[in-house]
Amino acid sequence: MLSNQMSKTNSAEIARQLLDGIASGRFAVGSLLPTEFELCEQFNASRYTIRAVLQALQDQGLVSRRKNVGTRVEASRPQARFRPTLASVDDLVQFGVEHSRHVQSVETVKVPGDLAREIGCAEGTPLLRISSIRVDEGLADAPMAWTDIYIDPAYKDIGERVRNSTELVSTLIESRYGRQIAEIEQDVRASTLSDERVEKGLGLEHGAAVLKISRRYLDAAGEAFEYSVTVHPADSFSLSMRLKRSAG
C-alpha cells in the first residue's frame, strides 16, 4: 500500500516510491497502477504532479498509458531510450561525451572477413579493439549500447589511456598523434545479435533484434584511422534528422 500520510509529497519522492514498487514486483509487469485520482489521494498531490510523474515513468519505458484503460506496467527496470539529433562531427563527439563509457576489454584481433567488409579494411588486418558499454548515468542499470572500436595497433598507448579517461578514442588520438576527424562515414541497419560478448553486456538473448551502426572516421586526407561498430537494443534507439530544401 502506498503511503497516504504525507502532505504534498514532492514528485521525486512519488517517483521513487512508484519505481520501488515496480522494481520489487509489488506492481507486477502487466498490471495497472492505481488511477490518477487514487494516486492524488494517496500522495496528497495535485493531478498535474501525478501526471508529470507518470509521464516520466513512460519516458523510461516502465509504463504505458491508454485512455479508458489506465497506466500499465511494461517493464521492471528503466529502458534506456534516447533520440540523438546529429548534424555535424562536433554533435557526434558531444553526444559521446555525454554518455559514460565502461571499458570491457582492450586487445589486438585479426579482423574476420564479414567485419572487414563492414568497416572497410582487408580481411585478417590486425587492429586494436577497444570494447565498451555506453550507459546513461541516470539509468546505470540499463546499458544503452555496446561499441567495438578498432584502431591501428601502433596506437596501443591509446588502449591503455582509454581505461582511465572519459575522452573519446578519436579525441585521444588527436591529442596524442594530431590526427583529427574531418569526416565520418556512417551506416545504420537492422540486424540480429550473434556475439556472446554483446549478448552478455547488454543483457539480450541470442538472435535478439538490434540496430547496428558502423562508422569510419576519416582525417583531412580522406584516410580512415578509426572504425567503430555500435550495437543498440532495437527498441532503445531512434535517430532524428532535419532536412531542408536547398536554395535555388
UniProtKB/TrEMBL annotation:
Keywords: DNA-binding, Transcription, Transcription regulation
Database matches in InterPro entries: Bact_HTH_transcr_reg, Chorismate_lyase_/UTRA_dom_sf, Tscrpt_reg_HTH_GntR, UTRA, WH-like_DNA-bd_sf, WH_DNA-bd_sf
Keyword Transcription regulation carried by entry: yes
Top-level taxon: Bacteria
Domain HTH gntR-type: 8-76
SUPFAM superfamilies: Chorismate lyase-like, Winged helix' DNA-binding domain
UniProt key word Transcription regulation: yes
PROSITE patterns named among the record's database cross-references: HTH_GNTR
Protein's UniProt name: HTH-type transcriptional repressor NagR
The gene coding this protein: nagR_2
